[in-house]
Amino acid sequence: MWLKRVFACLMMCAILICGPALGQAQSDASSNLVADAATLSDTLTEVQTGIYVLRLTNVSPRDGSFDADFWIWFRWQGSDVRPDQTFELANGVIASRSDTEVLNDNGYNYAAVRVQGTIYHEFDVRQFPLDDHTLTIEIEDAEREATNLVYVVDPGTELDPKVDVAGWQVGLGRPATDIHAYPTNYGFQSSGEVEAKYSRFSVPITLERTSIAPLFKLFWISLLSVVLGLLAFKVKSDDLDARFGMGVGSIFAASANAFVISDSLPETTHITLAEQINLIAVGAIFLTVFISIWSLRLRYADRDEASVRLDNWSLLIISALYVALNAVVMLFNLI
User: Fold this and answer.
1) CA distance 163 to 24
2) 267 domain residue, yes or no
3) Whole-angstrom distance, CA of residue 62 vs CA of residue 59
4) Which of left, alpha, beta for 78 (phi over 0: left; psi -120 to 50: alpha)?
5) pLDDT by residue (tens digit) across 37-95?
6) 159 contacts 71 by C-beta, under 8 angstroms
7) Does 27 reside within a domain?
């Protein structure tokens, strides 16, 4: 029993002796943490930046993204920044980047990095499948704001001649830099600012449709469905199986094509060009079925000549309306 009392006394003495020392150590650690906190330089560094795009893959309007593989280089003066290590994709994520080595380039620091990443883009699909797009690769520094680092366009930015995106002609726009402001100071209160401003280097890449082949590939089924629906007018209206079978089958084919179109598009509140053309096809086929019913009633009333005239005029009028409405829709959307 007396041993336990002696051990307890020794523990109390140890706590009394070591307690102030531990408190002082914690205070020193906190003091060192603030003292060693990173501070941004007050100097402004201009960084010449350029990109060489090697390839664009997985361009997906439905997913709103594309993958890019490119080289990016930086030229700057001074030893207090490493833009080759602190840059980021402002509109995407970097999947991999190569290691860098800083070289002396006529008195400038020079470093080049190969980057592979996924870039997010909101595709305007209102004119699909004759849609043009301008994709952008946007670069920002992750650490230094525009007061400390700004990008300057290097004239060497280019697009590899082998860059190809199926269905589009790829072109390079004019690279540019600007100051992008975020409406927050990210909790850094000592900045005295209510927003953070970063220099942004942007490279636009244009995608242009150069033919109507995508339109034909997407709508040849709808066009064939309309033709079959119109050819039903050449069948006697009292031949029910042939007359109405062609019309109803055409409606199902055009409706199935609508699912193919929607599977190629992202969620949107707009009625795209493709959907408008398909709606015209469905409407034309439905009109042929409705007129077939009217023609059949004329047959039942022993008005065979009137039924034939109705079929012939309907064939001409609906064909003309179908062509005219498609022309109007395409002109309205593309001009």
Assistant:
1) 63
2) yes
3) 9
4) left
5) 445 556 899 999 999 999 999 999 999 999 999 999 999 999 889 999 999 999 999 99
6) no
7) no
